[in-house]
Description:
The protein is mainly α. Helix content is about 55%, strand content about 0%. It is built from three helices and no strands. The chain has helices spanning about 25-40, 45-50, 55-69. It is elongated.
Amino acid sequence: MPARTHSRSHPQTSSDRIEIQLPWWAVALPAVAFAALLLLMAGPGQAHAAADDPSVGRILEHIQLTLSR
């Protein structure tokens, strides 16, 4: 007589869920890095060099238009 095998065909319950919790710095560090790079691009420290290159202004204008929507 063949032996029966038990399959796990029961639906997944809420206790079987996997929850991922990030530490606070995993969210804070990329946000701080993004803000620092944005300030470096928009900072007036190199205004004489940025006056010849309008691409930085276009990037900032595009970001402003995207965020204002």
